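Sorry to interrupt, but I need a hand with the structure work. I would like you to pick a protein and set down its sequence and fold. Please put the record directly below this note.
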Amino acid sequence: MKDFADIPGMMDDIGRRARAAASELACAAPEARREALTSAAEALLAAETEVLTANGHDMAHGQEKGLSPALLDRLMLDGARIAAMAAGLRAVAAQADPVGQVIADWDMPSGLNIRRVRTPLGVVGVIFESRPNVTADAGALCLKAGNAAILRAGSESFHSARAIHACLAAGLHAAGLPGDAVQLVPTRDRAAVAEMLRMVAHIDVIVPRGGKGLVGLVQAEARVPVFAHLEGICHVYVDAAADAGKARAVVLNAKTRRTGICGAAECLLLHRDIAAGLGAQIIADLVAAGVEVRAGAGLQHLPGVVPAAAEDFGREFLAPIIAAAVVEDVDGAIAHIRRHGSSHTEAILTEDDAAADRFFARLDSAILMRNASTQFADGGEFGMGAEIGIATGKLHARGPVGAEQLTSFKYLVTGDGTLRR
């Protein structure tokens, strides 16, 4: 490894080693990748004390920097979260191996047999901020899909990421796979990020995982293709035909279970016919739970709310704050979401099939839900074991990015001395 003072040289060395490792991983037996992940899970559980100590350093650093409670919650690890990371590693290990999977198979009149099969992307660069669990999730999913990974943790999670990465490295060693298959950029220097965004010879795709500032920077400056993960400006629309019990429970969960994740509800939309009744009850539930409700016209008379400013709609609070507005009907909700949403996750609460069908058909967010909390916008809850992020773009990957989304495909064509006429 070159001196950290030579960031371009260091990153070039990391990239070259990642590319070499990717060539080996693409041909590795599925059993080896599975063993690497299960061994990493065991190493992570065994290293709980070391990981928590490292996280303590990061938490102290974050508090000194004045991170918000939501960001500190994202950063914090405890025994339960470490156990969840290990469970995620095992869940990814247990999934069907995507590499070599036949997507389609057909014969042509010419005599050719054509198969379209999944193949690794190659080298995936992941740039993330506060959440140290991304180290495990990203490393696991890249490995499962036969990709090498270059991980760049944010300065806030630097020590935690190193401790978790050591467990991934132990898993690779146990399985006899190249240690360079999952590398962690060993410096907080932001110049390393700039280098990653230009490493077209070594990195096949960049996945940014963080706030609007990070994702905007990556999209503006990357020469490498990007899987965009934009803000989670998630909406919950309560329709006139909503079940009151379901609606009250779902809205409360969508906002309060964890306010600092991208699947947390940030805007509540109420059909005008239920605004004064069920809508008022829902808002009272939120206020009682300690949520600041920033209310639009028609709701500002309710106890405990504060008037909303125009900029509160279309804002990701990542805090116990939610904007609330009255809309005419499902079309009004659709128009509001189109105007203020980030194409992440939206939910409709209704017993009316036609309203739900219209909501699903006329919105194009990555995830649309009916009668379910937006907090389910997570790869683990979709059966993916883990996810690198929620892709809000429309090319290649969309929604939770799991192992399957980290593959491309190639065509395998078989003939028998077949000539083109």
Remarks:
- Residues 7-229+401-414 form a domain with the Aldehyde Dehydrogenase; Chain A, domain 1 fold (CATH 3.40.605.10).
- The first strand starts at residue 102 and ends at 107.
- The chain has two domains: 7-229+401-414, 234-381.
- The first helix runs from residue 7 to 27.
